[in-house]
């Protein structure tokens, strides 16, 4: 028998997670910037900020589902499964490394986590593109755009982080 008390999600956390999922979706779906095999967007900046500031469970859900919904509604349904895996790992990298800032130098751990997460994203989408389209050259054509997307999103997150610290709920 399942202990319902232990698995229940508080209403406040459920609403917060839904709002953050919608925010990831909007930031991913609306500023569509075409690159080979897909599009660049600002959704990763939202994912980075959530991973640094919000509860882990909410962050992982919002990153995966918000991004996958943007792929589905944006005409890139083929990318939903790779996106679910890639965004989960991206958020997890930032959660695990970027939140260690209280122990080691805070800025260094945040910057390292954002860079590693961006590199993972670019490499993983390049590999997924090579598999999905059976063409490594075609997939490599998207790599510069993906790297630029990662850098822009990391910089945006770093700029917004000081303004948002202390403004996210803890559940």
UniProtKB/TrEMBL annotation:
Gene3D superfamilies to which the protein is assigned, alphabetical: 1.10.1760.20
Keywords from the named record: Membrane, Transmembrane, Transmembrane helix
Record has Transmembrane as a keyword: yes
InterPro entries: ECF_substrate-spec-like
The UniProt record lists the keyword Acetylation: no
Record field: transmembrane: 14-30, 60-89, 110-134, 146-164
Superkingdom of this protein's organism: Bacteria
PANTHER family: UPF0397 PROTEIN BC_2624-RELATED (PTHR37815), UPF0397 PROTEIN SPR0429 (PTHR37815:SF3)
Protein name: Rod shape-determining protein MreD
Organism, scientific name: Selenomonas dianae
